[in-house]
Amino acid sequence: MPWIDACATSDIEEEDLIRFDHGDRTYAIYHSPDGDFFCTDGKCTHEDVHLENGLVMEYEIECPKHNATFDYRTGEALRAPACVNLNTYKVKVEGDRVMIEV
Fold this sequence. Notes:
The protein is 0% helix and 47% strand. The protein has no helices and eleven strands. The protein has strands at residues 3-8, 16-22, 25-31, 37-41, 55-57, 60-62, 69-71, 77-79, 88-89, 91-94, 97-101. β3 (25-31) and β4 form a beta hairpin.
């Protein structure tokens, strides 16, 4: 699996996310309150809605459409209507760049 340069660490505020499109896939990259970075699929598993405008609190992302909630560290669906987990992707930081393995 190749590592892709997704963004700068400064592009994402703590407890926030950005959308990253690569090929035909959309990803969401998160900056956790403890300074780590995480990556999941960029669309909710409930109705394929982009998560980029969702609310990030602590280690959770809330879908902006129906309020499904996921733990972005594990992808686990925490609140209905979502019942399918998000896929997660490995992340590493090199210098000031966030790299994801896709």
